[in-house]
From TrEMBL:
Keywords assigned: Amino-acid transport, ATP-binding, Cell membrane, Membrane, Nucleotide-binding, Transport
Chain segments annotated as coiled-coil in the UniProt record: none
Predominant location: membrane
Pfam families per the UniProt record, alphabetical: ABC_tran
Record-stated family: Belongs to the ABC transporter superfamily.
Protein name (record): Amino acid ABC transporter ATP-binding protein
Source taxon at top rank: Bacteria
GO MF entry, a single one: ATP binding
Domain ABC transporter: 4-243
InterPro entries assigned to the protein according to its UniProt record, in alphabetical order: AAA+_ATPase, ABC_ATPase_HisP-typ, ABC_transporter-like_ATP-bd, ABC_transporter-like_CS, MetN_ABC_transporter-like, P-loop_NTPase
Amino acid sequence: MPILEVKNIKKSFGPLEVLKQISFEVNKNDCIAVIGPSGSGKSTMLRSLVHLDELDGGSVSVNGNYIVKDGVYSKPQQVKQITSNMGMVFQHFNLFPHLTVIENLELAPKLLKQNDSAQTRQLSMELLEKVGLSDKADVLPSKLSGGQKQRVAIARALMRKPEILLFDEPTSALDPELTGEVLRVMKDLAEDDMTMVVVTHEMEFAKDVANKAIFMDKGEIVETGSPVDLLSNPQMERTKAFLSRTL
Ligand code: ADP
Ligand code: MG
């Protein structure tokens, strides 16, 4: 059974159909790269998977548990329970500026009273170590570079030990010289068998790290395939046109 199953999801903002019957599956250990032009619905698709956007129709299930089934949402408590299995990393980091790095990591577990504080502290330090920032635990985000901020955001997303990690253009807000350190951490996660869905314009990352690629345009999945095939030898005209503009 796939970890995440997305079936015929639909979403409109007013008259604008942003997601038109999108379906795909994510299996354990998949790293799926989602590419496509700006405005094609990539962020809305990711956000809807964790119920940051509400769908108008279709189904999303994690390990067979439905967040939404044929357009009908499960009870809020159940939706919360299911989405707590998923982590999200945003383009603009979304760190709390008034909290130190380690406080950013510890905030959610403290609010949810999930673990005792010694355990939370230990996990935070382990994750900061993993993203190469154990020496930054006590600084404010404003003292960090964009690449470091994004690595903190990744560590924070890992605090809940998610089964799936979703990334929405994690390097798009970074200066080019800072993208490498973030992509490196993401590659390490994929090599550690983290299940990931990554919206990205980093075609080299997609080819090197992802095992599957999805090309979206105008709210539809136009083409899917192995990243190398899809990026080097696209079959559909829309994919060809997009790649010829970006490469
Ligand atoms: P992408 O991430 O591929 O650039 P988005 O999912 O952000 O695409 O947006 C898809 C379309 O939906 C765009 O036309 C965008 O302007 C529109 N859109 C996104 N969020 C909203 C919103 N909250 N209200 C109205 N329109 C929105
Ligand atoms: Mg987007």
